[in-house]
Amino acid sequence: MRSYLVLTPPGGPDRDHRSTLVVQDGFSWIAFFFPWLWLFWNRLWITGIAALLMQIGTGLLMDIPGFGTAGFLAGFAFSLLIALEGRHYRSEVLIRSGWTLETVIAAPDIQSAEEIYFSGLPQPEEKQLPASAEWAKQAKPPAAGWRGPDFGLFDYQGGR
């Protein structure tokens, strides 16, 4: 089972909960192979720039004779760190910017996590519509002299 964080935007969720985020907490393969690109995609700009500079630095370190292994291990460790903690870092940035952590849900996939969360929300009260017989009683009578529409394109004022 995976854990999912449910975050609501500042000021509370909208009526349909379209702005509510359900974020998986855990390892990300895309963040492992492309850490700075994953950070940019998730709008973590400053950290993405730092990750890009770190990858450039480890690449340059690998080119120095005798430091190839150290550069590779440093790049691997950094990519592993972003892959393991990137989603948590993203949720922390959202919380600092005003989002609210509603709950943490354990579920096998994101669809199940969404179903668990949204099924637990209070449902709005449904107003029953009046019976059709009561609609007829509530209708206003037509004004005096008003006639219904005639068939055809033109109204001949009763001359048929």
TrEMBL record:
<keyword id="KW-1133">Transmembrane helix</keyword>
<dbReference type="Pfam" id="PF10947">
    <property type="entry name" value="DUF2628"/>
</dbReference>
<protein>
    <submittedName>
        <fullName>DUF2628 domain-containing protein</fullName>
    </submittedName>
</protein>
<keyword id="KW-0472">Membrane</keyword>
<keyword id="KW-0812">Transmembrane</keyword>
<feature type="transmembrane region" description="Helical">
    <location>
        <begin position="67"/>
        <end position="84"/>
    </location>
</feature>
<dbReference type="InterPro" id="IPR024399">
    <property type="entry name" value="DUF2628"/>
</dbReference>
<feature type="transmembrane region" description="Helical">
    <location>
        <begin position="20"/>
        <end position="39"/>
    </location>
</feature>
